[in-house]
Amino acid sequence: MDFKLILLALTVALGSCAGIKNTAEHAADAADNVWKGKRPFSIQFQIHHPYCGGAAPTKELADGFNEAMANEVFYIYEGERPSSITKMTKVTTDNEGRFKIDLPKGTYSVIRAAKALPLDEFMELKKIDDEFYTYNDDECFKTWRNTPDFTTELKKGHVDEIVTINAACFTGDNPCMQYTGPYPP
Q1: What is the mean pLDDT of residues 107-115?
Q2: Do 85 and 124 touch, CB atoms closer than 8 A?
Q3: CA-CA distances (angstroms) from residue 141 to 29, 40, 87, 175?
Q4: I need a labelling partner for 116 at 20 to 30 A (CA). Which of 10, 53, 96, 182 fits?
Q5: What is the Cα–Cα distance from 120 to 156, expressed in whole angstroms?
Q6: Closest CA to 181 of 131, 127, 126, 129
């Protein structure tokens, strides 16, 4: 029985040391990144859904709601948009719609994964073939695809932002599509 208590105490002690080591390693990595000229870059993405009709809404419902863009893939690039995603950094948001990365000083843009696709694949993904939808011309899709979801300049300190992407009723975040069908009563 004493052997089991000693083994348990040893396990707890070693586990505690591992936690201290991980914290110390994280602090050392952060210090190393500052030494190398990198800055913390933390963005939380959310999408705002408007109220789209139906029963008489409460004040809160009429204002719509924000939803974390959890577990979504984004790409980060510095300066002008590169021609290939191989020259972009891929990040995935956590359950709160946030990602964190250390980057050197510079101007960075962030795009959703779909915007990293070639234009024809992007348009195929974003168009809904249905009688209740109409579309602007292809130039609208090109402009939308080439417009970053967020751009910032990293200078001193860190960037910690919340970015809200606005959705529309029945068309989501697609500015090139119009819904022409019936609305809820």
Answers
A1: 95
A2: no
A3: 41, 32, 22, 8
A4: 96
A5: 39
A6: 131
